[in-house]
Write the structure tokens for this entry.
Amino acid sequence: MVSSLAVSASGAHAAPAYFRHGVASGDPLPDGVIAWTRVTPTDEATPGSGEGPVVDVVWQVARDARFQSIVAQGTVRTGPERDHTVKVDVRGLTPGTSYHYRFLLDGTPSPVGRTRTAPAASAQVEALKFGVVSCANWEAGHFAAYRHLAERGDLFGIVHLGDYIYEYGTGDFSAGGTVVRPTVPAHETLTLADYRMRHALYKTDPDLQALHAAYPWMIVWDDHEVANDTWSGGAQNHDPATEGSWEARLAASRKAYFEWMPVRAGAGGEIYRRLRFGRLAELTLLDLRSHRSKQEGGLAVDDPDRTITGDAQMRWLKEGLSASAGETRWRLVGNSVMISPVTIGSVPAHLLGPLARLLGVPAGGYPINPDQWDGYTADRQELLGHLHDERIDNTVFLTGDIHTSWANDVPLTAATYPLTPSVATEMVVPSVTSDNVDDFLNVPPRTLSLAAEAALALTNRHVRWSELDSHGFGVIELTAERARMDWFKLSDRTRRDAAAAPLASFAVGSGTQRLTRL
């Protein structure tokens, strides 16, 4: 059944012209939440234009959808310098409580969104359920995955693991070479105006608007929010000779991101952060792009001087996991690239090229992906060793990036697993629309990819399951006894009315660090 909220949010495109990009909320705390919108006060004040007047926008938070019981309100001034976006860190709210929020310009209200504060840190929470998504390429299809999640009434919120937007120009990274719907701007995003326009385009999608209006989001970036295979000093998809300064491009992309996304930045502008949900769970969101060394292969992957997290973030991560072990049952880690090791040396030749494109592996069959944790083995061993040595259990990595579905035990030493222990589990969700194996091969799903899945299972004993074809989303449910992930697949990513069907379900029992298929 479609909830009344979802119906209202889906109709956001019919709202007054002031609010063309919907509303959103995110980063719930026990006493607060981020509320977001973008106003178009005049027709010339389009995203990225730098045009339009400075205006005052009223925000309101209420216990009811009719706003008869307003609990917080205020006014924010916005204009071209922030692309007419409005982002408010609302505080003073009651823990574990649902609220409605809206904005008003010249007395005209925005669509109404619903959000929720996190439970109090000491609260005994019986269950939590989150939608989990990543990799939504506008040109490759419609966001039916978002629609199906928006229509559910049983989620606390949405965890987005990155690649919320893509930087490519039209036709550069589409659905097997087919542009389902052209992007704006038509060229690759390089400037502040470009990134603002691209973010704005995504937020015109009615299903994306519906999901933002239905639940608070917890979001972290991956690479395509800037450029493919981003690292601390550049990216694979950036050529300074033809595309200008990397520093200028990065600064432009980050400014647009923080303008357009309902996320809370740290005092130093960092995006890695923690969100707690009573005594049941803590969610750690990692930034695996801003501080990493450049991707390299060969023996360099074992160089202890190379890092994927940066030293400060690694210290923060380990300290947080240790502290959480005494406070919460589950430790969720929003992890944009796969942490489990993967070798693909025995994959048949006709599948090696497409699988290599997904994993970032040279087509000759090099066995690791230097863009994932496989390219930074010292950092991985430091983190997994910390989990093992400190006896920190119930850590679940939630991962996106590679457009495919995986259920992995995370071994301390992969070569000797299962004789040596698993120290965590990993649940990798498929892309919302971005290409995967059958798309690269241009063949029907569940045909040629079956051989690759069998080979992955044979050479990676910790990989309990992989599915390399489907697009869709995940839903993770936490109780004191277990963490369960349900994967869902779409019938056709190119159709807005695509159906969703169950794909697989796995669970890890508390204290076990091993996945079981349900």
Remarks:
- The longest strand covers residues 500-509.
